[in-house]
Write a structure and sequence with these properties.
homodimer, seven-stranded mixed beta sheet, 9 strands
């Protein structure tokens, strides 16, 4: 991710561009918020046309679109802007793969505030904020997550459904812990008409998941179980328990406690399916997974991006006999399959 | 600056990394604030040693240094961190070329707040903040600028001193408008022992410039003229008037007004020397200069990064007979020399 300097002379450009990188986040967020990508897709491709279409000042939208062009999100020729391939697929709201909504969660003021206090978090070894304990409810944040991050999950959700053989149609009982938008369990239910899903999360968050289950026609096989993953009775006899993006919020003992509860809920021969950012043992590769550790330092008391050997040990201690690692194609996350 | 995707399949990684790029700014700022680069230069190269030396938690500094490694500011081998060439030159406080202080101005809360309101600035066509008129005093911000940005000016200041033939030693009178840290005028005075410098800026800012003039041994040829560039009497008969990073704050009529005042102050045959971000006519290249336009949209009522043809017209209208453009080697800014 480092920008190499073309000449041999040391050049401060990479330092300068990193110290001002928050401007890139703000510009892309503003572009999404003002929906300039959809406006360009709809044919408003000059600054005058864009100003009309997006209800902005021509000067303002011209400067924003020039900046988005410089950073590779648009192209510009003879004063006309056009979408890049990535923008057309992921930022145009008419595109089925549109991810524009994720700007809301990734640029959430709660995250930003935590990063403003990063030096203090480094001193302390955990978030400088007072609400870094993710075993406690934080409904507003997780509803925002559930509403904005669902589109990003499609590749991982399909990968998990494939991994557990959902298309085979064998009757199965699935527990989706910290379901959020619910898309992991819902995708299994879509691919397997004989799957029953139990989704667990805070009550307000589950409403988003239930809404998605209704939209995708699986509501009759979708049960909501509101509450904490550390206190709510899971039930038992599950074929699969999904644990997507949950362990990274906690320290090792808390992860262990959760996984022991999961072990008790899985039927013999059943599996726990974990989706996570899993850095290599060097903790600096692959870049996106390894970098996620800082997000946890900034925002949680003791969360981290754990390595495979750490997960293997935690899951083994919880009673699982074997855990294997499966990279999700084209995505920075990996799936851990743990057998009981 | 766009990160190219290696495969042909559209991949949202560039969108994701841009929406979270504010985390890179925060991490580098925290690294500078905690002075981990100097600590590593001094031999504290494991997370345990760094924790002791920088008064941080080992877990915190480990996660931060891993992140800084991922983003190319450190290297890591067998749990030991080392500086990259750029970090050794620009981020180690023992290095004479250290630029660490610029984190304070570039990451100033005032800038950040303006970028938080960027969508509103695009709607309005100018900053959403209420203090975007830079003809008015904003001493606190400019003192912060003067105190933190001086090291970055060395290459441009030396280039300007060379361009006006300072080393020739010919007696000359130089007016440095919006002097800030004063380094442009001071560098001319250092290279030419017969140069007399008059520095203009807000009173509190000029104290920083005077401090620098004393440190660099040119205080006896350095006169402070506190006040507004639009109201204070400049005097006249100047050989050179320096206008470094000032025009971009204002709209075209205001720039024109300032340049007419400058024209009156320059002696016949004298020159106005402007240092600026000057994008090409396409306004999307070169990247750093063109991107600067957004900083002005976010933070000023009507400032911009003007093209050469815009400056040529403004300066011609103010009475200058000819303006030429000179790129500063290895820097994103250019110098405009205008002859009276």
């Amino acid at each position: 991710m480092a920008a190499p300097t073309p000449s041999n002379r040391p050049n401060p450009e990479h330092i300068f561009s990193t110290l001002t990188a928050y401007q890139q986040s703000a510009a892309l967020k503003a572009g999404i918020e003002l929906d300039v990508f959809t406006a360009i897709a709809d044919g408003a491709n000059t600054s005058a046309a864009l100003a009309l279409k997006t209800n902005t000042a021509e000067r303002g939208v011209r400067i924003l679109c020039d900046y988005l062009t410089i950073h590779g999100f648009l192209t510009k020729e003879a004063e006309r802007y056009a979408l890049t391939m990535e923008s057309a697929v992921f930022l145009n709201r008419h595109s089925p793969a549109c991810l524009a909504s994720m700007a809301e969660f990734l640029g959430n003021p709660w995250h930003k505030k935590n990063f403003e206090m990063l030096a203090e978090a480094v001193r302390k070894g955990g978030t400088a904020s007072s609400d870094g304990d993710n075993t406690k409810p934080k409904e507003e944040l997780w509803i925002n997550f559930a509403r904005s991050m669902a589109p990003l999950t499609a590749p991982s959700a399909e990968f998990i459904a494939g991994l557990i053989g959902a298309a085979g149609g064998k009757p199965c009982k699935v527990l989706d812990i910290a379901a959020g938008h619910g898309m992991y369990g819902i995708t299994v239910a879509k691919r397997n008409p004989n799957a029953q899903i139990v989704a667990l999360d805070w009550r307000g968050v589950l409403e988003v998941a239930q809404e998605n289950a209704r939209k995708l026609g699986v509501a009759d096989r979708y049960t909501a179980k509101p509450g904490s993953a550390f206190e709510t009775e899971f039930g038992n006899g599950y074929d699969f328990v999904l644990l997507t993006n949950i362990f990274h919020h906690f320290d090792v003992p808390t992860c262990g406690k959760l996984m022991r509860r999961v072990h008790a809920a899985v039927k013999p021969g059943g599996k726990a399916i974990t989706l996570e950012f899993v850095p290599n043992e060097d903790r600096i590769s692959p870049p996106v997974a390894a970098a996620f550790s800082l997000v946890m330092l900034a925002g949680t008391d003791a969360g981290d991006a754990y390595t495979f050997s750490q997960y293997e040990k935690m899951f083994g201690n919880a009673g699982f006999v074997k855990t294997t690692l499966h990279p999700v194609p084209d995505m920075p996350q990996q799936v851990l399959v743990s057998e009981k």
